[in-house]
Design brief:
Blueprint lengths: L7 H48 L9 H11 L3 E6 L2 E6 L10 E4 L5 H14 L4 E6 L8 E7 L1 H53 L17 H55 L4 H29 L8 E4 H11 L9 E4 L6 E4 L1 H22 L7 E9 L2 E8 L6 H5 L17 H11 L3 E4 L6 E8 L5
Helix pairs in contact: 1-2, 1-3, 1-4, 4-5, 5-6, 7-8, 8-10
Length: about 475
């Protein structure tokens, strides 16, 4: 299970809060610039009012300080410069000396990026400078008014404004994140947690049917589909595990019964051998049939026991000459030197694959045996009986073809070809040869299939060539 800070809930609420804060930052910078511009325009407007008052008097320089100083202080300025028609007038506080340098704030430039940069400059570096606010206040026409004032009041107001915006942004981000989180928790995260808990619990005890997920009724979205799919998968796994347990128990019981049955059949075979030595003509007539039947029963029981005990070792690939291996398998299957069946080894001499030679040999012997037995059972009905072994190579793969010109497989054998105990084509067969062959071929990275549309029966074994990706 994830830790307390590693769950989807924490990640979701953190992501939402960060996104909202980023949006607030994107809005904050233009808002800060607008606040600064509005603040400066207010001071410029007050300066313009003061200029109009001075303009109403014939001689500004004759105004006493008792009148000019309160007007300048009301504007927050230490001086006002008024330029019109080539004439410049200066009104300044009597007790303040004019600064040698000043920081320009030109309100005639409406560039948004410039306004944002100026606001940040004031917020970070301002406080000790003198501002020179330049612009044309309403009612001044083409005249230009310059207001000289300390920058510290502007910076103080900007800090207060920024602090208020930050506090409001944090509150909005927190409230919005919580609202979205509550909705997401009920609609998304809660069901995901429930689904995860169910899968983990079922993984610990897949045979407990009470742990199968119960989907939310009426849910039609993607999570609803996922819940129903998981529930169906868990139910199928539960049923499959129970079936496999039953089959395992049944297989163990059959193995024990089969073992005892083989022992009894062996005893019966010994008795039949003794009976066969009697002089009774009727016994002599029936004894061979009895012995043959017992031999088949014992062989069947032994084959089932071998299949149950079979533990195929992992393949140990090594370079294998396919032509030579096929010849060895043909000898083992009794094809080489057969009196009526011809064996045609058409695999090139230089064809080599990387495969476990024991595994492939077992597969080939099984296929050669099946082909030989089918041709022997057909007898004279097949003219020129022959078993062919050839290969087609290309595109990183090699296909081995093992076929005969016999009567072919019956329909029932074709349908259950690679199913244990079901795919036997001859009476008394166990149907285990081809399932074992498929396991061995697939263990070596290949595939085996019946080649359709061929005369007789042809099996195709596909194996990767050395170096094929």
């Amino acid at each position: 299970m994830p830790g307390p800070w590693a769950g989807l809930s924490v990640k979701l609420i953190t992501a939402i809060a960060l996104v909202i804060l980023l949006i607030e930052i994107a809005v904050f910078l233009p808002s800060l610039a607008n606040y600064r511009a509005g603040w400066l325009e207010d001071r410029l407007r007050v300066g313009g009012v003061a200029v109009r008052v001075f303009d109403a008097v014939p001689d500004v320089m004759d105004l006493p300080a008792e009148i000019t100083d309160p007007l300048l202080e009301a504007a927050g300025a230490i001086a006002i410069v008024y330029r019109r028609e080539g004439q410049t007038d200066l009104i300044a506080l009597q007790a303040v000396s004019m600064p040698e340098t000043s920081h320009l704030a030109d309100l005639r430039d409406p560039n948004p990026l410039a306004l944002i940069g100026a606001a940040l400059d004031t917020l970070v570096f301002g406080g000790q400078r003198t501002l020179r606010i330049v612009g044309s206040p309403p009612g001044a026409g083409d005249s230009v008014v310059e207001v000289l004032m300390p920058e510290s009041p502007l910076r103080a107001d900007l800090i207060t404004y920024a602090r208020n915006i930050v506090m409001v942004s944090i509150v909005i981000a927190a409230v919005t994140a919580m609202v979205i989180y509550v909705l997401a928790e009920s609609l998304l995260i809660g069901p995901i947690k429930r689904l995860t808990a169910s899968m983990l619990a079922f993984r610990q005890s897949p045979e407990n049917g009470t742990l199968i997920l119960v989907p939310e009724p009426g849910r039609r979205d993607e999570l609803g589909v996922l819940e129903r799919t998981v529930a169906e998968t868990q139910a199928e796994l539960f049923a499959m595990l129970r079936q496999r347990r039953h089959l395992a128990d049944l297989g163990l019981a059959v193995s024990k019964i089969n073992h005892d049955l083989r022992n009894m059949l062996t005893s019966a075979q010994l008795l039949s051998d003794q009976v066969a030595n009697l002089d009774d003509p009727q016994v002599q007539k029936l004894a061979p049939r009895l012995v043959t039947t017992l031999d088949k029963a014992i062989a069947f029981a032994q084959t089932v026991l071998d299949y149950g005990r079979q533990q195929t070792s992992p393949p140990r690939p090594q370079p294998v000459d396919l032509r030579a291996l096929g010849m060895e398998a043909a000898v083992g299957a009794g094809l080489v030197g057969h009196t009526t069946i011809a064996f045609a080894n058409q695999v090139p001499d230089d064809l080599v694959v990387s495969v476990d030679p024991d595994h492939l040999a077992r597969v080939l012997v099984n296929l050669f045996n099946n082909a030989r037995e089918a041709l022997e059972a057909a007898g004279p009905a097949i003219a020129g009986p022959e078993v062919r072994y050839r290969a087609d190579a290309g595109e990183g793969m090699v296909t081995l073809l093992v076929g005969d010109n016999g009567p072919g497989l019956p329909p029932r054998a074709r349908e259950n070809l690679f199913i244990a105990f079901e795919g036997s084509a001859k009476a008394g067969g166990t149907g285990l040869g081809l399932p074992i062959a498929r396991e061995l071929v697939e263990a070596n990275g290949g595939a085996i299939a019946l080649r359709e549309g061929e005369t007789g029966t042809v099996f195709a074994i596909t194996l990767p060539l050395p170096g094929a990706g």
